[in-house]
Design goal:
Length: about 150
């Protein structure tokens, strides 16, 4: 008898869920440790940051951190801060399913667009985003402050 796989996506808020999310998030944010992640999550949560996880048969495979922003340039949008699939789960469709879920969330909240930034070095991620119909509409400039 073969095992039935169940894919589900749900918001992550409990301490245990956040610790599980860290197991995936650290692949994208290796400069943080668990304590820093939890501290930054708490601060970002106060600013509207939300975290969702994609589970395949109860195993967390993909995590997305996102928020809703209203800006003069584009009105209300869903901004993806973080999107990462476990190394072992890449190319299995989890990222695509998460983006589709994020798009439905954006539509539910009456957003006009979905946005994300991606480091210039992340060529594999860029190929994925292009394959999902995303385009580059702007440059993101930054400058460290003293």
């Amino acid at each position: 008898m073969s095992e039935t796989r169940t894919i589900s996506i749900r918001k992550l808020e409990s301490v245990n869920a956040l610790k599980a999310a860290w197991g995936v998030m650290k692949e994208l944010r290796p400069h943080l440790d668990l304590e820093q992640f939890l501290s930054l999550y708490a601060e970002a949560r106060e600013e509207g940051y939300l975290l969702a996880g994609l589970f395949d048969s109860q195993e967390l495979k993909c995590v997305a951190g996102y928020r809703y922003l209203t800006m003069l340039v584009r009105g209300k949008s869903l901004y993806v801060d973080d999107l990462v699939t476990t190394e072992s789960g890449r190319s299995a469709g989890y990222g695509r399913l998460m983006l589709q879920w994020l798009e439905r969330e954006a539509a539910r909240m009456k957003c006009s667009e979905l946005h994300l930034d991606s480091g210039v070095q992340r060529e594999r991620a860029h190929r994925f985003y292009f394959a999902q119909g995303m385009t580059i509409k702007a440059y993101h400039f930054t400058r460290p402050l003293p």
